[in-house]
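Memo to structure team: turn this sequence into structure tokens by end of day. - J.P.
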Amino acid sequence: MVMLDTGKSGAALLLGPSGTRPNLFNLGSGSGTIAVTDTWLKADLDFPRIFTNVDISTSKETTWTGDWDALGLSGLTPSEFVLSTGSTIESGTAWVLEYFGSRTYDGSRELQIQITLQVY
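Reply from structure team:
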């Protein structure tokens, strides 16, 4: 049996428990070491963002993009994000968890996060 490119493209979008797929990013303000057994953000800011774009135009990969506006970020200091099937640990499953340098948002900067998963 051979999985064809079309099947791999679909798998990149549908990898997950019960065939679910990520539907949003969420931001947090935690830090530390990420373990594969982690299930959610260290310090959830409860600021989920539905994707502004989901790109499946490249064979065997899916790219998710999320955007946060300057006003919504004002006063927050995010340092981690999660790609998830739900907005909270209770309602979703985290696929990707990442830390980045902490930045304080003062209402003048926006944030865009892009994640690409490939299946080979």
